[in-house]
Amino acid sequence: MSNFNRDEMWNELEERGYCVVPNVLSIEQCDQYITELKDWAANQNGLDFTHKFSLMNLPRVGHLETIWKIRLHAKQVFAALWGTDKLVSSFDKFSMAPPPEEGTGDFDSGYIWLHVDRDGRRRGLHAVQGGVYLEETSLTDQCLRVMEGSVKFTDEFFSTHPQACEKSKGKDHYRLSNSEIEWYKSKGCVNKKIPAPKGSMILWDSRTVHDNVKATFGRPNSDRWRFVIFACMMPAQWLSEEDLQIKKYAYENMLLTCHMPCLNVRIHKKDSSLPEDLYAIEELPEIAKSKVVRQLVGIEKYDFNDGKPNGPKELPKWIPE
Q1: Over the stretch 253-270, which tens digit does the pLDDT of each residue have?
Q2: How far apart are CA 294 and CA 58, in angstroms?
Q3: Is 180:236 a contact under the CB 8 Å cutoff?
Q4: pLDDT band at residue 1 under the 50/70/90 scheme
Q5: CB–CB of 317/311 below 8 Å?
Q6: DSSP string, 128-140
Q7: What distance in Å separates the CA atoms of residue 287 and residue 71, rounded to the nearest whole number?
Q8: I need a surface site. Which of 40, 134, 154, 276 has the fewest CB within 10 A?
């Protein structure tokens, strides 16, 4: 946990709502994982790269061997952040998109889908989400965009916008209207693209307003793919029995969960537009059956009495029903 500066990460998360953590993966590791994912994609019939958010919708895709290997690298960052390696993880989708110059033509058109990945009844810190970048992302590439500083105002937003709070209930996702974006701007929050070095990780508090901007037409890096693997990990002692049963069901059936690894876990619905027999993998890879992964799922129990740090004990807060 000493490889990453915990205080620096938290200071940036609390002030800006995000931070960039360099050197999570080496260049060589990134290139190896990119090769593995491209080789896998080349063997998939009917693989669709045209999802408007460039997220892989393929069933079971979050359980690919390569994706689990990358999640295990991300674990070291979350361990430093939370002060414990006793963590549980989401198993979410990932973003893999070829250069739009190669035929999709899917460039930035000014489209905005600013949102928070948060149920409006949550209060204070709940989750820190993350993306591992296997390829460099510059300001002209497909890029994460945040409303910098919005992390400080999202509790107030939901308190003063009861309809938004109700609409987000049970979803951990709320997309802002134009007037609601202006509300954040009135608080001094500004839109900012976040570039990421190859092998880095971007972390953001789930209270941060954010979205994703497509590549700029005429960008200098016209051959650059997008590879971002999403991961969210939280202290394992926050995992309830109810959430464990949901995660266990998802894991055993190779389903994907949304970003919350505990405190109300939800399973991604299968995209109804995909053929019934189209699956990324037929069975869990060996790495997904390892002790460390089963601990991240929650099936394999940690020893919370071994004298090692367990992370923050107090559960995050909710407003009463």
Answers
A1: 999 999 999 999 999 887
A2: 22
A3: no
A4: very low
A5: no
A6: EEEEEESS-B-TT
A7: 11
A8: 276
In the chain, beta strands by DSSP E: 18-21, 87-89, 94-97, 115-116, 122-123, 128-133, 143-148, 174-175, 190-194, 201-205, 210-213, 226-235, 317-318
How do residues 143-202 score in pLDDT, each as one tens digit? 999 999 999 999 999 999 999 999 999 999 999 999 999 999 999 999 999 999 999 999
- DSSP secondary structure string for all residues of 232-258: EEEEGGG--HHHHHHHHHHHHTT--B-
What CATH architecture is 6-301?
Sandwich (2.60)
- Least Cα distance to 263 among 103, 128, 153 occurs for 128
Provide the token pair at 269: 């619905």
279 CB burial (10 A radius; 0-12, 13-18, 19+): middle
Taking the C-alpha atoms of residue 195 and residue 307, their distance in angstroms, rounded to an integer, is 39
SS3 203: strand
Cβ(217)–Cβ(142) below 8 Å: no
CA distance 120 to 207: 10
For residue 201, give both structure tokens.
């990780």
Distances (CA, A) of 20 to 10, 85, 201: 11, 20, 6
Please report, rounded to a whole number, the percentage of residues in the chain having pLDDT higher than 90: 83
Compute the C-alpha angle 183/187/140, nearest 5°.
85
Largest distance between two CA atoms of the chain: 57
Dihedral (Cα; 191, 195, 201, 203), 10-degree rounding: -10
Question: Residue 159 corresponds to which amino acid?
Answer: S
- Cβ contacts of 149 within 8 Å, gap of 6 or more: 15, 16, 17, 187, 188, 189, 190
Tokens coding 188: 């001094």
